[in-house]
Amino acid sequence: MILRTVLILCLSFIIGAYALQIAVIANKNFPVSSLNENEIRKIFLKKKMFIKDKKVVPVNLKNNSQIRQLFQKYILKMDNEEYNLYWNEKYFNGIKPPIVMSSQEAVIKFVKNIDNAIGYVELKKVKNRKDIKILKIINVGKKNGH
C-alpha cells in the first residue's frame, strides 16, 4: 500500500513537471474575469474586438516562440501557413494582426500597463501575480527543453 502511494505520488510529480500550461492573461481592469477558448480564439483572430463596450487589445508572442506555436495549435487551431493566409486576407481588408512582443516578460509588462490588453504566457510566469488577471489556463502537453 505504501509503495503504491509513493509510486502514484512520483508519477504525479513527473507528469506535472513536464506539463506545459499557458495562461491567457489580461490587464487587471479587463471587463471580465474569465473567457472560454472560443472567445479567446475570436479575440486573437479579431473576429471579436469589443467586450462590454471596451476595445480589446490582443498581443502575440513572436512567431518562433514555442508558446505561440502551442497557442496557435490549441487555441487558434491553425498552423503557421493557415495563420499567415488568414492575416494576409484580413490585412487586405484593413484589419491588422495582434501586436507582437519579443518575450513573455514583454507580454506581461504590456498587459499590465495597457487597459483591456490580453495576451498569453507560461502559467509559471504569472502564477502568483496580483497585478494581472488570469482569464484561462490551457494545458498543452509537454515541454520541449524548457
SSE layout:
Blueprint: H1 2-18, E1 19-27, H2 37-44, E2 50-51, E3 54-55, E4 57-61, H3 66-76, H4 80-92, E5 99-101, H5 104-113, E6 117-122, E7 132-142
Parallel strand pairs: 4-5, 4-6
Antiparallel strand pairs: 1-6, 1-7, 2-3
Q: How helix-rich are the residues, as a percent range?
A: 40-55%
The domain tally reads: 1
Mind summarizing the main beta sheet? 5 strands, mixed
**Within the largest sheet, what's the order of strands?**
5-4-6-1-7
Within CATH, the superfamily carries the name Periplasmic binding protein-like II
State the distance separating the first and last CA atoms: 34 Å
CATH topology: D-Maltodextrin-Binding Protein, domain 2
- Total helix count? 5
Strand content: 25-35%
Task: Give the C-level CATH assignment.
Answer: Alpha Beta
In terms of structural class, how would the helical and strand content be classed?
Answer: alpha/beta
- The CATH level-2 architecture is identified as 3-Layer(aba) Sandwich
**Rg from Cα:** 17 Å
Low-confidence stretches: 3-17
Number of E-state strands: 7
Task: List the secondary-structure elements in sequence, H or E.
Answer: HEHEEEHHEHEE
**Envelope shape:** globular
The average pLDDT value, as a whole number, equals: 88
